[in-house]
Design brief:
By secondary structure, the chain is an alpha+beta fold. It has a domain at 8-135: Homing Intron 3 (I-Ppo) Encoded Endonuclease, Chain A, CATH 3.90.75. Helices cover 36% and strands 10% of the residues. It contains 7 helices and 5 strands. It has a 3-stranded antiparallel sheet with strand order 1-2-3. The longest helix is centred in the C-terminal third of the chain and has 17 residues, at 138-154. The radius of gyration is 20 Å and the shape is elongated. The protein starts with 7 loop residues before the first helix and ends in a 5-residue tail after the last helix.
Length: 185
């Protein structure tokens, strides 16, 4: 009984692209923008689960990976390198909504380390205010990050620290951030 190996054209018709081999330990892997991985025989590669001390928090711990056979490649990095590009040395692959289990292309971006760190602080601020960023689309969150950066640049550190849940929610929909959101000292 012989098995027919799918062609690269077949993978492309299904929406898969070949992952750069250097990312997955030289193996042949095809990735889909939805975060599905197949080997050269079109068999699904199981993703190793999030390894975290407290599984209630999807933003902590180690992101899911493809396991030892594929060089422990993190899924979000595989998606970014396949569909966007391989990041430069001063860049990182980022989960826009902070959910490490969502490594679909729409939730992944490549940014400078400083931007990733800055936006991670904004995500912590949301979570500490009881707002779950994973409930918002990446496009909404990216606008929010820009608004938060503008707010931080135009307000004092005290005003930034004192932002409340209603203030943060207002930043999601604000048209003019410069002085409308926070009226405190």
């Amino acid at each position: 009984m012989s098995t027919i190996q799918p062609t690269p054209e077949w993978f492309a018709q299904q929406g898969f692209q070949l992952v750069p081999p250097q990312i997955v330990g030289g193996r042949i892997v095809y990735a889909h923008p939805d975060g599905i991985f197949l080997n050269e025989r079109a068999r699904r590669i199981p993703v190793q689960p999030l390894r975290c001390t407290d599984r209630r928090y999807t933003h902590g711990g180690t992101p899911p990976d493809l396991g030892p056979s594929y060089g422990w490649a993190y899924c979000h990095i595989v998606i970014a390198c396949t569909f966007i590009r391989i990041p430069d040395d001063d860049e990182e692959c980022d989960h826009i909504n902070g959910d490490l289990t969502n490594f679909s292309l729409g939730n992944i971006r490549i940014v400078k380390r400083s931007i990733n760190s800055r936006d991670g602080g904004f995500l912590r601020k949301l979570r500490n205010s009881g707002i779950n960023p994973a409930e918002y689309s990446p496009a909404v969150l990216l606008r929010f990050y820009d608004r938060m950066a503008q707010f931080r640049a135009t307000h004092t550190p005290t005003q930034y620290t004192r932002l409340t849940r209603p203030d943060l929610l207002a930043l999601f929909t604000a048209n003019n951030v410069a002085g409308d959101v926070y009226e405190g000292d």
